Amino acid sequence: MNNEVENTGKSPLLGKNILIGLTGSISCYKTCELIRKLIKNGARVKTVISPATLEFIGEKTLETLSDNKVYCDTFSKSRSTEHINIADWADLFVIAPITANTISKFASGIADNLITSTFNAYLGLKKPVIIAPAMNTGMLHNPFVQNNIKRLQNEGVKIVESETGQLACGTVGDGRLADVEKIYEKILENFHPERTSDQMTTKKRILLTMGGTKEPIDPVRFISNASSGRMGLCLADCARSMGYDVEIISTVKVENRPYKITYVNSALEMLDAVEKNFKNADYLIMAAAVADYRVKNPCSTKLSKENTGESVTLELVQNPDILKNMGKIKKENQKTIGFSLGTENLVETAKAKLQAKNADFIIANKAKVALNTGENEVWIIDKGGNATHIEKSSKENVAKAILERVL
Q1: pLDDT tens, 372-387?
Q2: What is the per-residue pLDDT for 79?
Q3: CA proximity to 161, closest of 143, 141, 188, 144
Q4: Cα R_g (the chain), whole angstroms
Q5: Is the pLDDT reported for residue 171 higher than 80?
């Protein structure tokens, strides 16, 4: 396997030796992405695992990703001091995921397998350690586990806090392994200590809208559309993986994501939320399907056949054009990106909207492809009127292609 370094030589990870430890958690699969990202940015990676890790991930997977053998057996046939050798080799030891069991062993100085023996040898060398816990909520909040975490922190071990969300046991709570990007950022901070939290906030910010607006008819009925918000969520996830700060304004519930989210229903509510947050954004991506019209006078009580008769007439008025409004007030360093959903003349319509809304890009997509499916096909229109076609693919792939073009 030939791991090509995809960087310009400026990566702080270039040539660094990073030892990745894994312990017996179902979230081991997430560490594969971390290993891939580290190697892509120039690091050399070796993996050391607890015996229980093999219940959740194959040795061959880790070996292929790291392009190195996997260290698991304390009494290897090749040599009996592997824990010393890999501890000497590493510039940084990252254990992700780390279980309650291994945390307690680390804190107590127990060395009953290769990963705990390696930790004992490594910490004695006064070199940096990062841990990312993953476990059931009850286990995480067990006072003994918490005390052991604090003991490790007192010895200089850095921790990437777990997140709240759906756990493998079926409950919702603390204990999910931190997002790979957070672990990666902590690794970068180790090699660039000047990257303080204040400096991290200088990352480019994206304000993204998603979902279809709901325009009330009465307290229980509304006018809406078939937008699921999935394209917007794919854009958010992809942007975050690229290192951007993402804030979401959504009409649909977003589960198990780390974003700051403002929930709205109608176009007027979305306009208000966008206006409040736009000034701090570098990019506005209007992926939401905003209704063109709303009911002029929604009924304050539920409409029924008994009080309306055989027919009901609804007077509709135009909703404000959020993207156009932001295009009028955007600063020189801000960019606005809109979506245009249609059934015909997609590119021509998008080009007209681009000019009318003073946008930087308009993404044209077909209604029959984009709505309620996991796929999309788009045309990216820039200010010069150039149209870049992104062929039909998963929304995740399309999101990546869009962001690589517009950011």
Answers
A1: 788 999 999 999 999 9
A2: 53
A3: 141
A4: 26
A5: no
Q: Which residue has the tokens 């699921």?
A: 228
The residues that are catalytic are 169
SS3 annotation, the chain: CCCCCCCCCCCCCCCCEEEEEECCCCCHHHHHHHHHHHHHCCCEEEEEECHHHHHCCCHHHHHHHHCCCEECCCCCCCCCCHHHHHHHHCCEEEEEEECHHHHHHHHHCCCCCHHHHHHHHHHCCCCCEEEEECCCHHHHCCHHHHHHHHHHHHCCCEECCCEEEECCCCCEEEEECCCHHHHHHHHHHHHCCCCCHHHHCCCCEEEEEECECCEECCCCCEECCCCCCHHHHHHHHHHHHCCCEEEEEECCCCCCCCCEEEECCCHHHHHHHHHHHHHHCCEEEECCECCCEEECCCCCCCCCHHHHCCCCCCCEEECCCHHHHHHHHCCCCCEEEEEEEECCCHHHHHHHHHHHCCCCEEEEEEHHHHCCCCEEEEEEEECCCCEEEEEEEEHHHHHHHHHHHHC
Cα angle for residues 372, 231, 298 (degrees, 5° grid): 70
Left (φ > 0), alpha (ψ -120 to 50) or beta: where does 266 sit?
A: beta
- 37-96 per-position pLDDT tens digit: 999 999 999 999 999 999 999 999 999 999 999 998 755 555 557 778 899 999 999 999
pLDDT at 279: 92
Closest C-alpha among 369, 323, 357 to residue 208: 323
Nearest to 38 by CA among 177, 162, 191, 196: 191
More confident residue, 98 or 373: 98
Residues in contact with 166: Cβ distance below 8 Å, sequence separation at least 6, in sequence order: 172, 176, 255, 256
